[in-house]
Amino acid sequence: RYSSMKDYLSELDKETKKALETFYGFSEGKSKVRRSADEWNSTESDFFKQIPLLKFEDFSRTATDLRSGQKRKIEGSVFHKDSSIVNSGDSNDIIGFQLCDANNSSECALYTFSSGVNAIQEWYKLHYMNIMAQIPLETKERLSYSADDLLLTCFFDGLSCDKRHFTRFHHPLHGNCYTFNSGANGTILSTSTGGSEYGLQVVLYIDEADYNPFLVTSTGAKIMVHDQDEYPFIEDIGTEIETAAATSIGMHFTRSRKLSKPYSDCTETGADIPVENLYNKSYSLQICLHSCFQKAMVDSCGCAQYAQPLPAGAEYCNYKKNPNWMYCYYRLHEKFVKEQLGCQQICKDACSFKEWALTTSIAQWPSTVSEDWMLRVLSWDKGQKINKKLNKTDLANLMVFYKDLNERFISENPANTLVILLSNFGGQLGLWMSCSVVCVIEIVEVFFIDSLSIVMRRQWQKAKKWWNDRKRDQSGKPPQAGDPERQGHNNPMCVDEDLPTFNTALRLPLPQDNPLPRTPPPNYSTLRLETAFTEQLPDTLEVGQH
Description:
Layout: H1 2-24, H2 46-50, E1 53-56, E2 62-65, E3 71-73, E4 77-80, E5 95-101, E6 104-113, H3 116-132, H4 137-143, H5 147-150, E7 151-156, E8 159-160, E9 166-171, E10 175-180, E11 200-205, E12 221-223, H6 234-237, E13 239-241, E14 245-257, H7 285-301, H8 325-337, H9 343-346, E15 352-364, H10 371-382, E16 395-411, H11 418-433, H12 437-475, H13 502-506
Parallel strand pairs: 4-6, 14-16
Antiparallel strand pairs: 1-2, 1-5, 2-3, 5-6, 7-8, 7-11, 9-10, 11-16, 12-13, 14-15
């Protein structure tokens, strides 16, 4: 609430109004007459000491200091903060500010803007962060809007809801924000029917009169749909809703999953990323990038940037304790944008993520015929805390709902797995070479397994012969004919070193001593057939022994 922060921002607001009056002739309650530089308040401001506002002459390095009115040459690198900067033909539109290294005054950087609005807002934002960094968190939460202040009516799934269903978290720039159905109390609400009547319906109190005029230039509210374990980067991807209107947001839920290594360079949980998660939420690319920049800020500048979570053991930057932080921050941010800080190379996309596709429609609210009674009733309900009648520009009607309850799941599958690769390989072999898996196995067996078996067998025979010869030499005994090692294929008469075949084994000489028992010859007389012939035929006569 701007009214609660005025005591902290009074000097900054005063200097901002002086800058507007000097530069544009803006004066509250007075005619818009440009002041001369001599009429500037002689009291030097700490805000202008830290970041002097400058007006440039024809895009040259000659600038006029708005505090002193003196012209001077500007040294240092020039950075255009507006990407669409063009020469509008009026050099008075170009203003900016200069940041110098507190330890080396010759090291300066000049930041210019194509619009005075952007320059004033950026200048105000820097000093605003300096002031807010010195205020305790409990005080800032107390000075911001409560859930009772923000909510006028609330319905979910056709039932009434209240502040107990909203969880507060403090945003460094926006103040208190509230999450519906965060699950912080252990209960997550669900809906079983799609459509606007079964979603979330709230009427928000937008106190436009209590807005900070220099920090925020639009009226309304920002919302974001996210999962319970995701951090809401509402300043990056938030959806703005306007006052005096009913905003309907229909959602389609999509769950996506990408393949990790070796198919892509994503990370499952972020545990393999050497960057500390400062947000205490599930990993995302934005969390990694912001955490990486904050760590680099603490390492390089000695303090943390106010718009991001505070690392352990660090403190937020302010020019009382860290007079050089602004120059250091802009230099570091320049490297970050140009991907020279290394964060973009370290941080990876998450393999699993959830998305809500939003479809927004807007209608005038309240209608002309219902405006009178509705504003009276809402003012009566809110009258216990405010002492004014509400008008429609103070209210915003929001409806968030699922269009349908179909969950879309998008997943990646490998185009070729090992099974598919082998199947394709076998199919090509069968098509072009008439070769099957059995044929391939036989080829492998012949060329590899059999060859290896032959080689190993030869080596085994050589090793065994060497071992037997060594034992015989150690014993000093000549080989005996009856030794088992002289029998069979170990007989020295066997010239061939290969295993004996059946024919070569028959040609081996028998041992002289201890002949082995032999199988007796068959009794051929038992094989003689009794014939009916009385006389023996001539060709069957027995031949005598010679």
